[in-house]
């Protein structure tokens, strides 16, 4: 995660989409506010005092980042809601006026959003620093301190990994049967699959994730990426067999590489590849603080659903999943087919 949140919309949104970190932040930061309509809110006067900035500064940020702040909870009260808010005994509107027809309110989430934007405020800078610490601590605590294998906490991972192993065997068997012998062909053509999907060979991927030689690359891949790799492996195995039988001989290395090029250009894979690149680049930057430079154009903020998926109550470590009777029953059914 970038240390300067003021410059990165993606990093700001990754913080704000992590409800577990926000819950910890609300407890530890203790910013105050007023309880209204089921949540803690802040008037502009509250925010000006909190960050020690002027009304004009707040208005400038509201104008420059209106859509972002609104999407994270900033709201305008009118009519009945405004009347209800004004009736609260602990609310003082001061210069905002008791007769104002519209009143802007910040939720806790949008206050943090503003804190990550404000460059003029030392208090905002302190909140940003504390917030980053809270995010790091929360992700580490909820993932068991093993962000390298955070992909395995997804309840879809085991099934995707199991199925990919089967297609991997089809792929390697096809290389044995239909491609000329070459000591490096398994790693060579596996790297072609990696490069086609995420623009990195095995060595580059290991460097980005800081993996040791003993670490398995596939054990760090997200379920969607594993499923796409399995699709490649099954499809290429089929094409190798078809081409070899048409020629009535094994394929040369060059012919096999040309087959790969034609295969990856099929329109069927375009949306799947784009989705896999986006998920991989975005999640690795958010959860593992790992930037795939060749995929930087695909980085987006991680949606709230992904925080639930990898950090939520239903996410489990691989050991927990393997001890789950329901999971074991699924694998038994697959094995018995």
Oligomer: single chain
Order of helices and strands: HHEEHHHEHEHHHHHHHHHHH
Percentage of β-strand residues: 5-15%
In what order do the strands lie side by side in the largest sheet?
Answer: 1-2-4-3
What does the overall shape look like?
elongated
Can you give the mean pLDDT? 89
The helix/strand class is mainly alpha
First-last Cα distance: 44 Å
| Largest sheet composition | 4 strands, antiparallel
User: Tally the helices: what do you get?
Assistant: 17
Q: Could you name the ranges where pLDDT drops below 50 across 5 or more consecutive residues?
A: 333-337
Q: Tally of extended strands?
A: 4
Secondary structure: helix percent: 55-70%
- From the alpha-carbon coordinates, what is the Rg to the nearest angstrom? 26 Å
Structurally, the number of domains stands at 2
Outline the structure in words:
This protein is 61% helix and 5% strand. Helix 2 (19-29) crosses helix 8 (122-142) and helix 10 (185-198) packs parallel to helix 13. The two termini are 44 Å apart. With 337 residues, it is mainly alpha-helical. It has 17 helices and four strands. It has helices spanning 9-16, 19-29, 44-51, 55-64, 66-71, 79-86, 108-115, 122-142, 157-178, 185-198, 202-209, 223-247, 253-264, 270-287, 304-311, 318-322, 325-336; strands at residues 34-36, 39-43, 75-78, 102-107. The chain is elongated, with a radius of gyration of 26 Å. The chain has a four-stranded antiparallel beta sheet with strand order 1-2-4-3. The chain folds into two domains: 5-142, no CATH class; 147-336, no CATH class.
